[in-house]
Amino acid sequence: MPLFLLIFGVASVSMLVPALHGGAVRELETARAFFYCCLLGLIIFGMIATAHAGRRPRHGALGTLMSLFSTFVFLPFFLAVPFFEGLNTTTFMNAYVEMVSAVTTTGATLFDRPERLNDTLHLWRAQVGWMGGITMWIAASAILAPLNLGGFEVTAQAEPGQRESQSTIYGRTDPRARLLRIVTALVPIYVGLTVLLWVLLFISGDRPLVALTHAMSVMATSGISAVGGLGENGSGFTGEILMLLFMLFALSRLTFSSDTITATQGGLTTDPEFRLGLAIVLGVPLIIFLRHWLGALDFETGEELQAAIRAFWGALFTVMSFLTTTGFASAGWTEAQSWSGLQTPGLILMGLALIGGGVATTAGGVKLLRVFALYLNGRRELERLVHPSSVSRAGRESRRIQRNGAFIAWIFFMLFALTLAAITMLLALLGVEFEDAIVLAVAGLSTTGPLISFAAEEPIALSELSGTAKAVFCAAMVLGRLETLAIIALLTPDLWRG
């Protein structure tokens, strides 16, 4: 059975959740839309599954990669049907963009007023983002790792897009058996962590629906909220602490799994991604915090101390959130901006989102491992300036990076930069203001949708974009989720013949 068909079946069954919720809270029209779409999806699934019974997949790992691409491009058409019917006050194009944003864990929304959607539709948005997150968790080791894509090309010993030849790493197992093994290993972890965070947020004071949507969004790094952000949640400071702790899972794959080659050399304490992520999370808020002392050296009253603590926490949480491409802003982020006197905080947030989180997590961006590989190469080049004849030594921190890892990371970075420039120019040609075009391009490619509300001087209204501009933004989100190297692998004829 094709992987995309299996994902389609799971998505159809998952519509029962908002259908039951809508029935329980008496949002009956919305509940009927989800229930009927669930039945329609199961009928289509049954018919196609019957037609494919007994067929063997012909394209191996590249076929599953094509299924992953279809999940982010074609599945949102089906996911948008109940959303469109349940809302009934928007266009189908807007509903499709909303679902692409959710399933790619971008989290950008065309509905800037949360009250425009009922609770069932908010639950569906968060649920689609949550399912997109677990899809990437599974696809990382079942699809991308064997092909040395998605950041694994920096650590693997094969060329990007080529099938893994080292059977000692992934074993000589059938791709379907490997997929099943990974699903059974990761799904309980993902579900368990989500339920745990949901319960903790509920105990801390959030409404059940708000707690659930925030828990799903943190685990999927989608930044989707049923109340428009953290300023309206009931858990307050305690809730932000809990969410920050669970965002640590987006800094490195080693925080929750050891199922890939990235776990074969050292543990979490020696993991360069985790250490670099913590350095950024602590370093950037300290710079923002200490910037205040450059202009004011007074620190006398207790109110000043409390303001300083709130400002530091606001910066710490927001930096962690945007580095992991989640996109939640702390309730104290405004105070952090006032405290530091930042004139352009959006540049900092965009820079953090571009760096991104760990390889094989739900985070987007360039990824910390690639940044670390470029850092090691830069440090080595500085050493050669001082000692041209010196011989480098592979230290403990370099064990996860292959010999030409920095070169491959640089290729990806340049492809990312060229894609960013192309999407920015396309959006600008379609009538979007240049600054807004840059923000939209960064938000799409880094899968950090909340940037459209925080990075620009004024929040960008996605609903006011033309249909073509919305299509370009959708393409940016899919490119950001799958990454350029994966798209190139899909377009390479030789790999399909292999």
Produce the secondary structure layout:
Blueprint: H1 3-14, H2 16-24, H3 28-51, H4 60-73, H5 75-87, H6 92-103, H7 119-147, H8 167-170, H9 175-203, H10 208-220, H11 236-247, H12 272-295, H13 302-323, H14 333-340, H15 345-355, H16 368-386, H17 405-429, H18 434-445, H19 451-454, H20 467-482, H21 484-490, H22 493-497
Helix pairs in contact: 1-3, 1-4, 2-3, 2-7, 3-5, 4-7, 4-20, 4-21, 5-6, 6-7, 6-20, 7-9, 7-10, 9-10, 9-11, 12-13, 12-14, 13-14, 13-15, 16-17, 17-18, 18-20
Can you tell me the overall shape?
Answer: globular
Task: Write down how many β-strands occur, each being a DSSP E stretch of 2 or more residues.
Answer: 0
Order of helices and strands: HHHHHHHHHHHHHHHHHHHHHH
Largest sheet: none
pLDDT average, as an integer?
86
Question: Number of DSSP helices?
Answer: 22
DSSP strand (E) fraction?
A: under 5%
- Spans of at least 5 consecutive residues whose pLDDT stays below 50 are 165-172
**Class from secondary-structure proportions:** mainly alpha
Helix amount, in percent? 55-70%
Distance between the termini: 21 Å
- Rg value: 23 Å
